[in-house]
Amino acid sequence: MTGHGDDVAFTMEFLRPKATSLKLIRVGGRIDGGYLLPDDLGGVRHCFSPGVENRKDFEDEILTKHNIYSHMADFSSSVQDLRTPLVKGKQTFDKKWIATETASDSISMADWIASKDLETREELLLQMDIEGGASMRFSPNSQILYYVGSESLFLSCMTSIWFEAKQCSRAG
């Protein structure tokens, strides 16, 4: 049986920056919401984006240039508040927080992915820009991390994750 510390160690090792021989491309907004991705998106079919607020420049660009469908979630926003409309059949939006457990205003990452009834769960892209969202508790497990792959997980909340991981390792 593994303890909480093993999960934290696995997560931190997974999140450690890794060298790549792949060419990087910039995707998303010109100022905010732009990210560097490996230029190896050929097998990626779906992107999961918690914390979009009212912007989906990244999701629009990966659809237009790479035909990657996006599933967005943010309890602080709504479909009507998005700056560009959803592309029917290719982009979805859930007014939910992504959390460790599913509740009336939240959904776990595993439940969120399962709810999309995907043809395959291989090569998913997880794009997170939650900027330390206090209401979000992200607890990835090895199954979810396997689906998204190490080259496809981009987080802008490392300080929060590191702090929570340190707290968990002290408690475990």
Q: What report would you give on this structure?
A:
This protein is α/β, with parallel strands linked by helices and 172 residues long. It has a domain at 1-13 and 104-118 and 129-172. The chain is 29% helix and 22% strand. The protein has helices at 4-15, 57-66, 109-115, 142-148, 158-171; strands spanning 24-28, 34-38, 46-50, 69-73, 91-94, 97-99, 106-108, 124-128, 153-155. The protein has a 5-stranded parallel β-sheet with strand order 5-4-3-8-9. Strand 8, helix 4 (142-148) and strand 9 (153-155) form a beta-alpha-beta unit. Helix 1 (4-15) runs antiparallel to helix 5.
Share in helix: 25-40%
The computed structural class is alpha/beta
* N- to C-terminal distance: 13 Å
Summed over residues and divided by their number, the pLDDT gives a mean of 75
Provide a compact summary of the structure:
The protein is 29% helix and 22% strand. It has 172 residues and is of the alpha/beta class. Helix 1 (4-15) runs antiparallel to helix 5 (158-171).
Write the layout of secondary structure elements.
Elements: H1 4-15, E1 24-28, E2 34-38, E3 46-50, H2 57-66, E4 69-73, E5 91-94, E6 97-99, E7 106-108, H3 109-115, E8 124-128, H4 142-148, E9 153-155, H5 158-171
Parallel strand pairs: 3-4, 3-8, 4-5, 6-7, 8-9
Antiparallel strand pairs: 1-2
What structural keywords apply?
5 helices, disordered C terminus, 172 residues, two-stranded antiparallel ribbon, 29% helix, alpha/beta
